[in-house]
Structures are given as structure tokens and as C-alpha cells.
Amino acid sequence: MKEAEIRKLLAANLLSVFSVVLSAVVPAFFWDGFTVLGTHLAWLCICSVCVSTLNIILHLVLKPNLSPKRSSFAHKISRFLKCCIYFFMSCILFHAIIVLYGAPLIESVTETFLFAVLLSAFTTLQCLCMLGPNIQAWIRVFSKNGAMSIWESSLQITTMCSILGAWFGAFPIPLDWDRPWQV
Amino acid sequence: LATSQPRHARLYRFRADAPTTTMQRIKGLTTGSLPTFIDVGSNFATYAIQEDNLLAQLVQNGRRVVFMGDDTWEGLFPKKFFRSYFFPSFNVKDLHTVDDGILQHLYPTVDSGEWDVLIAHFLGVDHCGHKHGPDHPEMAKKLTQMNEMLRSLVDHLGNDTLLLVAGDHGMTQTGDHGGDSEKEVNAALFVYSKTPLFSTGLPEEPETVPQVNLVPTVALLLGVPIPYSNIGEVMAELFSGDGDAVSAALQQLSVYHINAKQVDRFLHSYSLVAQDLPADQLQHLRELFSSTVEEHTRLLAQMQEATLVPAELESRLGSLIRRFQLYLQEARAVCTQSWARFHPLRMVGGCTLIAASCLLCYVASELATASDSFYRSCLLYPLLWSLVVAVLLGLARAFTQEGLDILLVSSWAAAASQLGFFWYWWGQHPKRAHLVGSQPPLASIGLRQRLRAWLGLAFPMGILLFRCGAMFSDSFVVAEARVAPFLLASLVMLLVGKLHWDGHLTVPEGPKQQLLGFSSYRREIWYLLCLMAALLVCVRLSGFFHQCREEIPQCQPSLFLSPLASLRNTRAKNLFYLLCVALLAGLVYAVRSWLRHYGNLNSSEPLVLFVRWGFPLVVLCIACYWAVASSADDSLGKLQELVQVAVVVFPWAVYGLASVGLLLLLCNPMTVFAKDTREPAGSIVTPYLGVPSSEVDFLHVIPQIYKRMQESQKSRLEQGSCRATVAAYGLGSVYSAALVIALTLLGFLLMLLHSERLSLAFLLLFLEAFVLLHMHARARGLAGDAEPFSVPWYAVISWLLAASQFFYSTGHQPIFPAIHWNAAFVGFHLDHSTNLLPAVLVGANTFASHILFAVGCPLLLLWPFVCEMPSLQKRKPKKEPREELQEVEEHMMEMRLRESPEKFSTALLQLGLKYLFVLGTQLLACVCAAMILRRHLMVWKVFAPKFLFESLGFVVSSICLLLGISLVMRVDCAVSTWFSQLQLR
């Protein structure tokens, strides 16, 4: 049982990594002039779409949280809508936080927002898939000794590392290696 | 003129060397050497030039030098002038005095002909740039005036006169100078004479001439020796005369020869003294020089024999001139490259000293709680040690008849004291280890606890590490204005996240709930989240007040930095003015209502009266001053004189009021109103002991006395009339109240020194400090710390990060052009008599946030006690009267500190040491960066100024920290006397 779960988890994470890499490499074949840095907006879009579809598919296939009770169709729809609303809200929230951390308010709004979407795809979407729109469960998972299954601890780790990575991503911003005197 | 008479006049681009401050430029223009950077600080405290210079040579050779204008020259060249007209230069707001004075004397002097060299240093344009910026109508007026002056001066010139018009430096977009950006180092040089000077016509693009080149040129033109330390190159064109090409070239050649010989002599003697010029380059230069000179002598010999055809002669002359030029240029390049000398040994020594002090602060802050004998052994003895060493060293030096180097002696003394400290610490260490060893089970627990504590430390220390690491990269230093808020925001987020992670935010629930996977937040979480959001917004908003560095080309300096006077749109000006005044009033209102909330505004002591009536008065004065200062210069017409007076009077009123307030605060810092409701002869009933049988018991009662009127009444009602008590209002927050009042007064003073719209930044500063304190208190309350007397590291670090963040947000940058020199003239319309006062004013302006945060540092310790109140108040009505007693006990707030005085003082010491440690680590990083990267490309532009600013900030912060802590101690004394008085009654 546990072995199987770990294998599943490994496969899921590997797939996620693979999708990110693919999203950087594959579009170059279809689209002339695509580079990650050159057309960063397009890449951000593609990457977040890739990751979110993959997450949803994985969730549907693997079903890590086995909900015992079967629910009605209407219930499912409402759940789905709630998830969408939560996702959107998390995008807005991330956007606000990024701006508060010092991103420009008006110029390059699209970049900031797409970055927020990407970050949400990495963090919020996974939580939504795994835990559903259930704030209490989220709070439980993200506190000490809160994770109760291997899936949940993996969730903890990936989410925190995403946020940490985004935080570290701010470090190279002030570097001025592109100036003329830096030969 | 240059176009109409191309052979008479020429315009050059005149390149100054950094730093472009006036005194350095004057030095450069007269000695012809490069300035050392440290001189900038003494820009306004000039001392005579010791080196050989142009003026000295002129005077030695009996030339008559007449000077008029900037009195900086007087300090540099005392008694050198044949005749002089000095005018005060320091007041940058005064546009006309110097220029009008010069104009008055210029023409008569020129016409009288009693001079060989006449120097006229105009300052109007420079001052105008400082005050209004380069694109202001005033500047146009000033430039027109200068143009008129030149035009009429040209008419006055004799035929044998050379007119040189030069700017000593350029100015940045904001009108300042001092750095080395393209705009600052470029000025113009205009050469004109009534006799034709130039053989060729006008070149298309003006040539670029380094500023030092003027020195040998003028010297040789006037026929005096070139100053000894000159490294400039003559401007050969001026020597061409009006003969044919060959004679012109010969003349130029001889001039070059003299110049090169002089430079070679200087370089030779310099390299003998100091070894910092690279040897191979020096060798190369020497070879070049000797070969060129040989060539020259050979050529001259051939000339005398007259064996050469003119064409060949011309080409050889040309090549020779080029070689001389090459030599001179290379020599200058070598000198520019390495013109600073370093003392590696002293640098390393200083670094280790700072590192050791940091370590000492850390160890001491950890130890402070450990033992009582600690003070005497660890702090007092080392001081004695240091004194002994200092005296010994001083005696040794005195006996050996060497010059006493105060710096060395003091550093040795400090080192000795630190050694002493570590010695004692080491001595104590085994003892404690032994103690721990005797109880093995305890030790293992201690180890685990220590490990956990280390992990807890890792977050804030990691942030601190990032901050220190950022000092080592020039781009991070350049971007520090944004790095500090980023780290602050991260630290705060981390704090909240950690609280959540540890489960302090959720309601402790039963096992049943936990199984279901539900957990709900306490109500405080929303409060905490709101605080965090407010803090983040504050941090973000403060980013709008940044000054620009030239390294970031696309940056636009904040609108708010320029004074209101430079705003041309009247409506916007009025609007901003009203906004600023309203904010000031709001600040006063907030402080007053805070004090009222804690009951500190009830008494009729002079201090409280001052807070009530003095604060609005101060605000009124500041508002009036702003109104007067921001009004347009000429619009008031007749009222001009009145305005002149008002500009001086209002700031003085503010200074006076603020100092009166601070004095009152020192004399009587009690903001407590005692209401004696005891029965005159009745027995005093204490909450738990009945009649106080001894004085000790009595002392115990008083801290438990209620803070507010209602409470005391209510409790009296509840507990019946069996008890009479002394109601003291505001006793619970007596320490913080004093600090808050002091901070507000300081804030007013500093706001006065800044430009009007920066008061918004100050408001943000106060708000952010308030929010930080509240968060800290809340976090403490939630985490339920075991030891309330120690301030955690994250609080100290976030406090310091906020301080450095607001250094930038009050419109400063660690570069010299960004210093707000205007601050020196707040309240002083005319020149200063000494240099001390303006230095203090400018320093206070620059380090405003350091001062405020350092003085407010003890609040970190006090605030959690103050904030105990509200949460308990809510629960109070529900409690049974019997439990009331316990409640009452918890109302003591800061009076808890009174209960254990030695703990209180230890906590203060510990807080101070922690603050110093964090400050010292930053300084250490800065020093190391400056030391390791001393050959870096950006060292003079980035690291050295940063290091200077950081160290000055460190000194200012530590002094203010001491002041803040001593203020708290003073309040403590006052409280004790108050208690003893109460007891006597």
C-alpha cells in the first residue's frame, strides 16, 4: 500500500517537472521565435496552463483523497465553481502580495498577474485538487504535525518550496550584469 | 564670440575629476593633482592647502593676485592675495550676495589694472541649481545675468589679457553635485583673448580638456614654475603664438618638455614615498620619458646645427610632441587609477576589532540573564583593563617622544578590554559547564532546547545574513533601497507564518475535533492579519519617497523630495501644503489620543500641559514656516523683509519649544495623575493582605492600582466600600508615554529639517513603527513566551530593517550628492559662524530614521507590557468579583517591570546589546566589503560612500540608543521617587 503510494507520488512529481520542461522546450518547434526569456508572457501562459491541466488530470486519475461519500451532480458543480472562485481569489491575492513586495503597480501589470497565476497554479491549484475548497483542511495541513498522509506532506513541501523559490527569484533582480561596463 | 572670432576664442568641454565638490575642484584647479576622497567631508571646513600650488608660485614670483567671490578660497589660500573681496559661500539659498558683490568690484578692478591674475568665483548659478534645480525660471535669470557680465567684461579687457571662463563642476538633474556622473563632471571652459590665439579655425566638436590641465597652462603662460604635484598636461594650442608652424611647434615642444620634466620629477619622488603605483607601469613611463627626452635633446642639437629641412623638422617635431603628449596622458591615467593608499594591516585590525565587538555583544546579550556577578566581572574589569592599557601605551609613546596616535591608542585599549571580557567569559564557562555536568538529565534537555532555540534563531539570522551579504555586491548596495523593505516584509511574513505553523493561531481543540480535521482560528488572527497588511502597505508606500542614484538610469527621483517652493503649479502647491499640515495635525491628534487612552493626559504637571498645548503650537509653527518658505521668492514684494524674519523666527520657535519639551521630559518624566481617595485616618485595605503591616507590603500595593478612573470606580463599587485606594492614572504606561513624547518631539524637529512633503514619509514611519510594535506585542501574547523580559531577535532585526528602510524613504541615499544640504539653513538665514551647527543639522537630517528608531528601541521591551491591557479588559465584566483580584494583578502593565528592578535593567541592557549586535554586524559587512573590494571598479562610487554613511549611522544610532535607554532609566528613577513620596503621605 505504502510502496504503491510512494511510487504514485514519485510519478506525479516527475510528470509535473516534465511538464514544466516540456512547456519550455516544445513550443519552440511550433512557433518561430519562441524563447523562454524573449516571449516570457507566452511562456508564462503556456507553463501555467500545462501545469494546471496536468494537475487536474493527475487528480482525476490518481484520486489521492478517497472521499467515501458519493455526492450529487449539483454538489459537484458547486464544488467546482467554488474551486474556480478560490483559484481566482488566490491569483488576486498573490498579485497583491507581489505588488506589496515591490513590483511596479501600473507598468507590466500583465507580467505580474501572469506570474501570480503561475504561482497559484503551483500552489493553490494543487491544494484545491487535493483538499477541495475546504479552508479548515488547508489550515490543518499547513501547520506543524498537520499532514496526515504522504500526499499531504508532499503537498506541504511542494507549496512551500514554490513560494520559497518565488522569493529567491527576486534576488537576481538588482544585478546589473547587462550594463555596458560589466564586460 | 567663438564663432565670430574663431582665432580669438574657443570653447572646450572641461572634465572635472570626482568628487565634484567645490573645495576639491579649487584644489584641483590650483595644484593640478587629484583629490583624495576623504576630503569631501571637509568641503565646508576648509583648511589651507599645504601642497605646492599655482597661487603660491604666483605670489612667490611677485605676481599680484586679486580674488573676489567664494570665501572657500580664503581658507585654502590664507594671505596669498594681493587684494581680495570674500563673500560667504555656504548659504545655498542665497542666490545674489556673492554675485552682486563680485559685480560691484569687478569692473573697477579690471580697469584699474593693478593685477596680474584676477580670479572671480561666481556662485549664483551653483546655488540656484541647489535651490531650484536646473530647469527653473530662476536659473534662466541667473544665466542671463552671467551672460551680461561676460559680455561687458569682454569690452573691458585689455589686449594682452587672457580670459578664461570655467565651471568647476556640472550639476545633476536635481541641481546637486559631488559625485562623478557624466552630468556632474562636465563643465565648460571658454578661452578668449583680444589678440588672436589660435592658428586654426574652430573645430566641429568642442575638445575635452581635463580640469588639471589648466594648471600647467596658466603657470607657463604667466611664466612661473609649474606646481610640484601637478599631473596635468599643458594645453599646447594656447602656446602656438602667431609665428609660422615650425616656431609654434618648437614653442609647444619646449612647453611640453618643461611639463613632462615636472611630472616625471613628481612621479619619481612620489613612488619613492609610496609603493602603491604599479612598478611595471612606472618603469614603462620612465622609459618613455627618458627616450623622449633624449630625442628632444638630439633634435635641439640638430636644430642648432641647422642641418634639417623644414618639412622633416616639422614632422619630427610633431611626432615628438605626440610622444610627450602620450607620456603625460599615460602618467595621468596611472595616477588616476591608483591614487589611494591603503593600510592593509590597520584595515584587518579594524575588522577584527569590529567582529570581536559584535561577538562580545552577542555573548553578553546571551549571558546577561545568566548571573548577577556577571556585570562586575565581565563589564567593569575590562573597562579598567582598557584604561590601564591606554595609559600604558600613552606613557610609552610619550617616553619614546613619538607623536601620539589617538586612533591607535584607543583601538588598542578597546582590544584590551575585549580580551579582558573574553578572558572572564572563558573563565566562567568551565564553571557553568561543570554545573551542568553534575545534572546529566537536565543537560540533555538543555541541549535539545538549545538546538530548538538555534533553529528558531535561524530565520531572523538568515535574513540578517542576506542583508549583510548584500553589502558585498555593488548592485545590491545600489538597490538597497528596495532590498531592505523586501527583507522586512519577508521577515514579518515569516513571523506570521511561523506562528501559524506552530499552531499558536488556532484554538486549541479537543482530540475529537482534531480527528475530524477541523481547526478554527482565534479571533486575533484577523487582527494580526490586518496589522500585517497595514505593515506591507506602509512598506510599499514608503517606496514612493526614494531618491535616485545615478547608477539606475531609468529611475526618476520622487516628486516628494523637492521643496514646495520649486512647485510652479499654485493649486497643487496649496493642496500639498494643506495635506502636509493636516497630516501633522493628525499625528498630534493620534499621539494625544494614545496618551489619553492610557490615561497619561490627566495630570496637571508641566509636561502634560506641554503635550496638551505645546504640541499644537509646534505644529502651528511648522505650518507657518512651511507656508513662508514655500511661497515664491519675489511674489510677496513689500513683505519681503517680514518673510526674511519669519523664515528665521518660526524654526527657532520650533527648536525652542521642542527643547523646552525635552527638558521638561528630563526634569519630570512622570505623566501620572494620582488621585488620593484614601480616608485621611482610615485604614488602607490592600487586595489580599488587609492592612499593610510593613513598608514592603505597601510598595506591593501600589503597582496594582488601576489605570483608569472607571475601573477604579467600578472595582471599588464591586468590592464594596471596605477599601479605599490611590487611583493613579497612566501609571501602567509611564515609561512608554515618556518615550512616545520624546519621539514625537524629535519627529517634529526632524520633519522641520526635511522638505515639506517628506512629512508624509515621517507619518508612514510612525505608523509603521506603531504597527511593528503592535505585531510584536501580539506575537508575544500569542506565542506565550516564557521569559517576558527578553526581546526576541526577530523584533530587533525588523526594527533595524525598518530603520534602514526609512533612511531611504526619507529621500536619502548613501552617496554624497544626495545629502540634503538645505537642512543647514532651516532657521539660519545668513551664514553660520561655526561649522558645528550646520554639521549637526545636516547629520540629523540624514540620519533621521536612525535617530528615531534607535531612541524608540526600548519600546520593543515595553510595548508587550502596555498591550497586555485590551485583551484582559474584554473578559473582565464576566468575571466573578473574587477573580477580580487576579485580574487586577494583571493590570500592572509596565509596573511589572518595577517588581523586579534588576531584571528590568538586565533586560534593557540585553536589548541594547542585541541592537548593537545587529547594527555592528551590518557595519562589519560594510567594512569588510570596502576592505576586500578596495580595488573594485565601483569602490569610490558605491562601497566607500556606503561605508562612510553606514559607520556614521552606526555612531548616531548607538548614541541615540544610549539616550533612549537613559531616558527610560530616568523615568525609572522618577517613578521610584514618586512611590516613596506617595508612601510618605
UniProtKB/TrEMBL annotation, chain A:
Protein's pathway: Glycolipid biosynthesis; glycosylphosphatidylinositol-anchor biosynthesis
Principal localisation: endoplasmic reticulum
Any single Gene Ontology cellular-component annotation: endoplasmic reticulum membrane
Gene Ontology biological process: GPI anchor biosynthetic process
Subcellular location: Endoplasmic reticulum membrane
UniProt xrefs under InterPro entries: GPI_biosynthesis_protein_Pig-F (IPR009580)
Membrane topology, record value: Multi-pass membrane protein
Membrane-crossing segments per the record: 9-29, 41-62, 83-106, 112-132, 153-173
UniProt superkingdom: Eukaryota
Keywords: Endoplasmic reticulum, GPI-anchor biosynthesis, Membrane, Transmembrane, Transmembrane helix
Protein name (record): PIGF protein
Species, as recorded: Nyctibius bracteatus (Rufous potoo)
Gene that produces this protein: Pigf
TrEMBL record, chain B:
Transmembrane spans: 347-367, 379-400, 406-426, 453-472, 484-504, 525-545, 575-595, 607-628, 648-668, 726-752, 758-777, 789-808, 847-866, 913-933, 953-979
Topology class, membrane: Multi-pass membrane protein
CDD domains: GPI_EPT_3 (cd16023)
Source species, domain of life: Eukaryota
Gene Ontology molecular-function annotations: mannose-ethanolamine phosphotransferase activity
Biological process (GO), any one: GPI anchor biosynthetic process
Subcellular location(s) per record: Endoplasmic reticulum membrane
Record's keyword terms, sorted: Endoplasmic reticulum, Glycoprotein, GPI-anchor biosynthesis, Membrane, Transferase, Transmembrane, Transmembrane helix
Pathway terms, separated by semicolons: Glycolipid biosynthesis; glycosylphosphatidylinositol-anchor biosynthesis
CC per GO annotation: endoplasmic reticulum membrane
InterPro entries xrefs: Alkaline_phosphatase_core_sf, Phosphodiest/P_Trfase, PIG-O_N, PIGO/GPI13
Family: Belongs to the PIGG/PIGN/PIGO family. PIGO subfamily.
Protein name per its UniProtKB record: GPI ethanolamine phosphate transferase 3, catalytic subunit
Native species: Nyctibius bracteatus (Rufous potoo)
Lineage, broadest ranks: Eukaryota, Metazoa, Chordata, Craniata, Vertebrata
